From TrEMBL:
This is DNA-protecting protein DprA. SMART domains: HhH1. Coiled coil: none annotated. The lineage of its organism: Bacteria, Pseudomonadati, Bacteroidota, Bacteroidia, Marinilabiliales. It comes from the Bacteria. It comes from Maribellus luteus. InterPro entries: DprA (IPR003488), DprA_WH (IPR041614), DrpA_SLOG (IPR057666), Hlx-hairpin-Hlx_DNA-bd_motif (IPR003583), RuvA_2-like (IPR010994), WH-like_DNA-bd_sf (IPR036388). It holds the Pfam family WHD_DprA. One of its GO terms (biological process) is DNA repair. Residues 9-28, 41-60 form the Helix-hairpin-helix DNA-binding motif class domain.
Amino acid sequence: MEESLKYKIALSMLPGIGGILARNLVAYVGSVEDIFSSSLNSLKKIPGIGEQNARRIRNSKVLEKAEKELEYIHKHGIKTAFYTEPGYPRRLKSCVDSPILIYYKGSFNPDKQRVISIVGTRNATDYGKRMIDDLVSAFAERGYDILVVSGLAYGIDIHAHRAALKNNIPTVGVVAHGLDRLYPALHRETAVSMLEHGGLLTDFPSGTKIDPQNFLKRNRIIAGLADATIVVESAEKGGALVTADIASSYNRDVYAFPGRSGDVYSKGCNQLIRNNGATLIEGIEDLEYFMGWEAVVRKEAVQSSLFVELKPEEQKVVDLLLKEKELFIDQISAEVQLPVSRVSVMLLNLEFQNVIQALPGKIYRLK
């Protein structure tokens, strides 16, 4: 187990080998360990690798770095999840460029049925803070089992984390460095509180320098962990708009709070809405409407599905959703013991018959 993790860390550290190429390597070679024992000629033949990357893989120094990282994470109680392991976040796994390995601390479930990312400017105004307070407190009032994700940065990010903690909602901060440090240091007290009700997550190993490019890179995780990304405030340019664009590329929902014409830190949101890059919301009611959220499945809706003539396998799915309320497609597949491809066709048919409703993140429930 320890030896296997060392090789997984090493694979994630290889320069020039991102998530896509790393997955390609594993698929062609068969195991992470065998990648590092494969010959130069064998590696060169793998699509996308070439001689330069093959030589990087054969460089044993990366294994030495991985060994040191392994010692560090054990010493400091840092947990990891590789993309082939059950603990890797479901939503993130479906993103083509997601990291192959993540490091995290805390106690949280990244696969909650509702996960929302809240992002925005570092120069949050009273208006933006009020929008966050109203939205997050509404999550708590309605009893939603929800996880709030943001980037622990100044402004909108840290206010979203603090609003979640205030309302006893778990919250995760995705950071752009290793878990051996915290940036900005001013947010340490909040981060410590998050470890007890949420956590910190990154794909960067310890010793990673604070680099502006890393903040843009980590935005793909903020977008990939969630069903939807909400931009609260943003100037005409900024990281929040990058996160929104990434979320759209993942076919996730993007929402934005509108601002007054001329307000500097609402220009980005207004621009997103104007260009159809985000759906306008003004509060929890709008979010519930667009996301199809309901606290309880209505009894009459369940009863109406019983009058549709269903095949035995379809009836199994309906009975399962009647019991569990909402489930991921792979959970349904496991419960009814049918392959995901077959379940996908069945769910589409049930959706056409107005029996079930598809939610973001491949979650299904009775209509």
